Amino acid sequence: MPELTLNNLTLTGIDLDGVDAAADIGGDTFPNDGETFFYINNADASPMNVTFASMRASAAVPGFGSLLSGNAVVAVGATTEMLIGPFPVTRFNNGAGQVQVTYDSITTLTVAAVRLVKPKSA
Q1: Rounded CA gap, 77 and 55, in Å?
Q2: Structural domains in the chain plus CATH codes
Q3: pTM for the whole thing?
């Protein structure tokens, strides 16, 4: 799985058309610090699903005990652009600090990893 370049979102903005890349047939990875979002542009006439792999089978939730923590599957409509995230590090990061993502189809599908850069106080 190739690693997508991380693009920083700042006060000056980001042109997602300039940073997106063709989705890889075997899936992609992207670095995640818990403030990372995933941009997807499905320009195809058919809807598809995007799956973000969970690295944990369960998670302890105060007041609820241990809950299953499966993959996150997001439906992306035909000719739709979406921004998905952020991704909790403890649930989604693999050993290399990346999120793994796969796609039902990659026909006319472009993607990008976008990190929110918090401004320092003025």
Answers
A1: 26
A2: 6-116 (2.60.290)
A3: 0.88
